[in-house]
Amino acid sequence: MDSEPEIAALLKNYFNGLYTGDTELLRAVFHPQAALFGDVRGAPYYNTIESWLSAVAQRKSPRDLGAEFRMVALRIEVLNEIAYAKAHCPMLGFNYVDYLSLLRQGGRWLITSKLFTHVPEQAS
After folding, report:
1. Got the DSSP string for 45-97?
2. How many Å is the Cα radius of gyration of the chain?
């Protein structure tokens, strides 16, 4: 079975959730125990999925701010029931690159961890 189309569909929902601030859509693509780690302009970042979803719900979304949708998957790699995706997610004044770990569980793919950083525009 070719998992890349399933993962690409999950990433589309992830991007749409980020862009619109739809926390239910984001909740549907993340494992309930997912963790988020990052390096944002040199500052370390850690959050649980629930705390992060709460923060997303309380901020204005990129769509509400009139930002152009520019998120894109750069790479998907699958090995058995695990995968990773590299994505470019420019939003809210940041130029994020995300590394997403995924696991197929219960017949569907879920993001188990998000590792991300802000990079200069030309580096993405």
Report:
1. EEEEHHHHHHHHHHS--TTTTT-----EEEEEEEETTEEEEEEEEEETTEEEE
2. 14
3-state secondary structure of 11: helix
Residue 92 has pLDDT above 60, yes or no: yes
Cα separation of 47 and 68, whole Å?
26
In the chain the domains, ranked by start, together with CATH numbers, are 4-123 (3.10.450.50)
- pLDDT of 63 over the 60 cut: yes
User: Quick check: 10 and 54 in contact, CB under 8 A?
Assistant: no
Distance CA 124, CA 111 (A): 21
Judge whether residue 120 has pLDDT over 90.
Answer: no
pLDDT tens column, 26-48 = 999 999 999 999 998 889 999 99
